[in-house]
Amino acid sequence: MATTQDRFPFSKAPVKRIKAVQFSVWDPDEIKKYSVCRVDSAEIYEKGKPKAGGLSDPRMGTMDKFGGICTTDGANMYDCPGYFGHIELAKPMFHSGFIKTVVRVLRCVSYHDSKLLLDKSDPKYALGLKRTKPEARLRYFMGICGSKKFDDRSGAPQPKYRLDSMKILMEFPVPKDPHAADAMPESERKQELSAERAYEILRRISDDDCKAMGFDVRYVRPDWMIITNLPVPPPPVRPSVMMDSSARCEDDLTHKLIEIVRANNHLKRQLAAGTAQHLLNDFVAMLQYHITTYMDNTLPGQPPAQQKSGRPIKSISQRLKGKQGRIRGNLMGKRVDFSARTVITGDPNIGIDELGVPWSIALNLTFPETVTPFNRDKLQELVNNGPHPPPGLTGAKSIIRADGRRINLAYVRSDADRQLELGDRVERHLSSGDLVLFNRQPSLHKMSMMGHRGGWDFLNMDKSDSEDEGEASSEGFQPSDEAEEEDDESSDYSSDEDLESEGSDDDEDASEEGEEDEGLSWEELEEEARRDDRQRDLEEGNEEDERPRKRGGGGGGGPAAKRRR
């Protein structure tokens, strides 16, 4: 039986060290070069087998686990990586990812001869070449050339471009002489720029002008940003799912590619039949819509493509970007062991280097500790507690013997299997004093991940160790009665009003009165307060006190404070 190594022997080419990675836009000629077939049929299967020229052409690879063979390399679905095909479009189409750059380039070049609107003899031209960043250079020339209404060389009118979703609208300026023979009629001043006309303008731009605008013609040209040949991804990228009723459920990308092929074939037939231009525009718009929603189905101003069930199509853009995309969700994102996450609260009762861990987490996280003469008794006690220890205690999950055997304590019945020997490793539960790595997202630098000592019974931190002390103290700290008495003696948690009230002589007298009145009932306190009020009115002749009464003082002030109590 031939193995994969027999079919694909190792290359004898010398191994080179990678120096750099260069991204580029795919040249339409390269798309054809890397393609193994041209897709021009909207039918996928013919007599139960993949149809040649369809979206499951055997030359692009196979997803048939029952003897399917790729006709390009002769491999099955497990060894074949898949190969691209291509669709030759009847007319050029805009790319949703490049249309903004296309508009920027159009503002820099002439509408009639595709030359840069800024002459090389102009000092501003040399000033723009001094900019090293390509984006800054294109932005510089667009800022200078975008305001020109007429070409300085020929005097031809230069339209003003505006992007509207996937349409480029242009408006020509009012002619200098409206009665001239070559003056543009008023009805033609506002037009929609077709992708075909934009492709012709961009294709005529010289390499020197492309370099001046920041393009490296070895890797990208402005006309490559308009689609003429659409790459078709291989079946392994868009696999079909076999249902219980022996029917196949195709991927969303395959459904969109079917609609693209159908719309492209309709447009080809209309072009061959010589259909009028205003009727062709509808077929062009339909093909543009399917290509746009195939690339990105969330563009503003564009109705999303949907399945028959009403579910939106998951386009290429949605598969790559976002938290659930291919990059963050599959390549960079991963699930790991020995980690936990939850909401934290502040706690002033633990040290600044301590971290409170819930029991549910502590009994799940383990640490492999080697048995020595110094910790043998402690580890033996944890092993005896087992994976489900009594409340308030920790235990162990398993024992790893010196010969590599693992003993799961959940299934151990005899005491002999629980006996530890020197050199064994015990995977014990997290205990107080263990060092753990603790981070707060987003972890943008190494200071976001710090070491703490685990302990306590819920995930919390010391108040002074949190970034927002006020929030931690208000939400995570509720003082008890004893804490309130300590706060009266200490000024750590006192506010400015408390300090001010403590410094007043009246409040000290009032606090002394309050201490003497601790044994009085509420009725006696009310009667004493009314008696003090009448005495003050008689002495002062019903005049108001010149000193303002303090509200909310720490120790209370006079009868008003007693009345509040």
UniProtKB/TrEMBL annotation:
Check the record and name the InterPro entries matching this protein: DNA-dir_RpoC_beta_prime, FACT_SPT16_C, RNA_pol_asu, RNA_pol_N, RNA_pol_Rpb1_1, RNA_pol_Rpb1_clamp_domain
Catalysis performed (reactions): RNA(n) + a ribonucleoside 5'-triphosphate = RNA(n+1) + diphosphate
Q: What's a BP term from Gene Ontology annotated to this protein?
A: DNA-templated transcription
- Superkingdom of this protein's organism: Eukaryota
Compositional bias ranges of the Basic and acidic residues kind: 528-539
Q: Which SMART domains match?
A: RPOLA_N (SM00663)
Region described as Disordered: 299-320, 458-565
Task: List the biased-composition ranges (Acidic residues).
Answer: 481-527
In Swiss-Prot or TrEMBL terms, this protein is called DNA-directed RNA polymerase subunit
Q: Which organism is it from?
A: Raphidocelis subcapitata
